[in-house]
Specification:
alpha/beta; 3-stranded parallel beta sheet; globular
């Protein structure tokens, strides 16, 4: 599951928390088996990156974080 925020402001902790706590629960609950046996992986695409608090929470959930600099590097390498 992911979030894409393309503003010039860094993504806040509340955005990460909302995806992990609220949106992922809704997605899993919407599956026929209630998400039983499913693994959830998180990714954040953020033009300006994440605040320190948001990054700490994302890392705690093993999230992939892609900012504009990383996207540019990955596209050039690919």
């Amino acid at each position: 599951l992911g979030e894409c925020k393309w503003s010039v402001a860094a993504v806040s902790r509340s955005v990460v928390r909302d995806l992990v706590k609220t949106k992922s629960t809704r997605v899993l609950d919407g599956l026929p088996d209630g998400g039983e046996g499913w693994a959830v992986h998180y990714v954040f695409f953020a033009r300006a990156g994440l605040t320190n608090a948001a990054q700490e929470l994302a890392v705690a959930h093993d999230a992939l974080i892609v900012d504009l600099a990383r996207l540019d590097r990955d596209l050039e390498a690919g």
